[in-house]
């Protein structure tokens, strides 16, 4: 068995990783089941690349080729909420290509916007996708953009089927979830390190050859076009920016006031131990004074 695995690993990195990968323990709570699916047109509109976007039933396909990528945006801005969608990624050579699901207010605040990202970074043959999570607060248009990246591999092959990816954002915390498993929690430790202005939800596929794959070493190769992202099962629940101020933020745990259960925390730590390979707070090449949340204690 061991010999077989070694041979498999020499010839096919992806099957190798999937055959030795471990599945996380159960989170015990499934927020995606709490929120209704909404049809694409009820929640979203095309933002760019309309000719590279196709809606069939409730499954949206967007693609990137030599001429264009494509993106969509929620019709409403939100003050808080749960934003989820099931995504299936393109197989094969996808270096330079990124498929995204994120919150942003970059059109409302150009040059100093907030953003919360889930970005799937394409890959070369036989290597696994990277899920990069990120939080920007009042990112500036100059060179001083401060990213807060945490990067993961997944415990499944995201090109083989749909998996549910979600961003939860409340005035207290941001939680990233994959198939209802919390993989990262970003707390509001100070007002300066937390996005507080309304954001819209977005999805897109585009060419980020300059940085996406191994820091830009591998570029998009259009011999493999089109690069296709499939999105379905859109979920959104929360407080739109137009709702009354008494609207209570939703929660991704049984606790109405937010936070996670002990079981959810323990699965999150399990995922971070086994599948996270980059944490900006532990990057010694970075200037720690720019990311005080890495060492500030949580507010109680
Ligand atoms: C780190 O950032 C602070 C705040 O912007 C700045 O004053 C300091 O010079 C920076 N340190 C380095 C080593 O770049």
TrEMBL record:
<dbReference type="InterPro" id="IPR016455">
    <property type="entry name" value="XTH"/>
</dbReference>
<dbReference type="GO" id="GO:0016762">
    <property type="term" value="F:xyloglucan:xyloglucosyl transferase activity"/>
</dbReference>
<dbReference type="GO" id="GO:0048046">
    <property type="term" value="C:apoplast"/>
</dbReference>
<feature type="active site" description="Nucleophile">
    <location>
        <position position="115"/>
    </location>
</feature>
<dbReference type="Pfam" id="PF06955">
    <property type="entry name" value="XET_C"/>
</dbReference>
<keyword id="KW-0052">Apoplast</keyword>
<keyword id="KW-0808">Transferase</keyword>
<dbReference type="GO" id="GO:0042546">
    <property type="term" value="P:cell wall biogenesis"/>
</dbReference>
<dbReference type="InterPro" id="IPR010713">
    <property type="entry name" value="XET_C"/>
</dbReference>
<keyword id="KW-1015">Disulfide bond</keyword>
<comment type="function">
    <text>Catalyzes xyloglucan endohydrolysis (XEH) and/or endotransglycosylation (XET). Cleaves and religates xyloglucan polymers, an essential constituent of the primary cell wall, and thereby participates in cell wall construction of growing tissues.</text>
</comment>
<keyword id="KW-0378">Hydrolase</keyword>
<keyword id="KW-0326">Glycosidase</keyword>
<comment type="similarity">
    <text>Belongs to the glycosyl hydrolase 16 family.</text>
</comment>
<keyword id="KW-0732">Signal</keyword>
<dbReference type="Pfam" id="PF00722">
    <property type="entry name" value="Glyco_hydro_16"/>
</dbReference>
<dbReference type="GO" id="GO:0010411">
    <property type="term" value="P:xyloglucan metabolic process"/>
</dbReference>
<dbReference type="GO" id="GO:0071555">
    <property type="term" value="P:cell wall organization"/>
</dbReference>
<dbReference type="InterPro" id="IPR044791">
    <property type="entry name" value="Beta-glucanase/XTH"/>
</dbReference>
<keyword id="KW-0134">Cell wall</keyword>
<feature type="domain" description="GH16">
    <location>
        <begin position="19"/>
        <end position="231"/>
    </location>
</feature>
<keyword id="KW-0961">Cell wall biogenesis/degradation</keyword>
<feature type="active site" description="Proton donor">
    <location>
        <position position="119"/>
    </location>
</feature>
<dbReference type="GO" id="GO:0004553">
    <property type="term" value="F:hydrolase activity, hydrolyzing O-glycosyl compounds"/>
</dbReference>
<protein>
    <recommendedName>
        <fullName>Xyloglucan endotransglucosylase/hydrolase</fullName>
        <ecNumber>2.4.1.207</ecNumber>
    </recommendedName>
</protein>
<keyword id="KW-0964">Secreted</keyword>
<feature type="signal peptide">
    <location>
        <begin position="1"/>
        <end position="16"/>
    </location>
</feature>
<dbReference type="InterPro" id="IPR000757">
    <property type="entry name" value="Beta-glucanase-like"/>
</dbReference>
<dbReference type="InterPro" id="IPR013320">
    <property type="entry name" value="ConA-like_dom_sf"/>
</dbReference>
């Amino acid at each position: 068995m061991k010999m077989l695995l070694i041979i498999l690993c020499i010839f096919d990195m992806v099957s190798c990783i999937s055959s030795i990968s471990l599945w996380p323990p159960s989170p015990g709570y499934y927020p995606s089941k709490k929120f209704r699916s909404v049809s694409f047109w009820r929640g979203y509109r095309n933002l760019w690349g309309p000719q590279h976007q196709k809606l069939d039933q409730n499954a949206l396909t967007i693609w990137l080729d030599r001429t264009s990528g494509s993106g969509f945006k929620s019709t409403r801005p939100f003050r808080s909420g749960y934003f989820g969608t099931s995504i299936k990624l393109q197989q094969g050579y996808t270096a330079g290509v990124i498929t995204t699901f994120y919150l942003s207010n970059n059109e409302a605040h150009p040059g100093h916007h907030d953003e919360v990202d889930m970005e799937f970074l394409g890959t070369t043959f036989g290597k696994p996708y990277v899920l990069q999570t990120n939080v920007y607060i009042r990112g500036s248009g100059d060179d001083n953009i401060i990213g807060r990246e945490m990067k993961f591999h997944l415990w499944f092959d995201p090109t083989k089927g749909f998996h549910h990816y979600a961003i939860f954002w409340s005035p207290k915390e941001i939680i990233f979830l994959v198939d209802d498993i919390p993989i990262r929690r970003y707390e509001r430790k100070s007002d300066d390190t937390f996005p507080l202005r309304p954001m819209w939800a977005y999805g897109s596929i585009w060419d980020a050859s300059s940085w996406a794959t191994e820091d830009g070493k591998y570029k998009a190769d259009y011999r493999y076009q089109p690069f296709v992202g499939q999105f379905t099962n859109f979920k959104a629940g929360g407080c739109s920016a137009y709702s009354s101020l008494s609207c209570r933020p939703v929660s991704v745990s049984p606790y109405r006031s937010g936070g996670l259960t002990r079981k959810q925390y323990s699965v999150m730590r399990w995922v971070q131990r086994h599948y996270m390979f980059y944490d900006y707070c532990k990057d010694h090449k970075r200037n720690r004074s720019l990311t005080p949340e890495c060492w500030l204690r949580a507010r109680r």
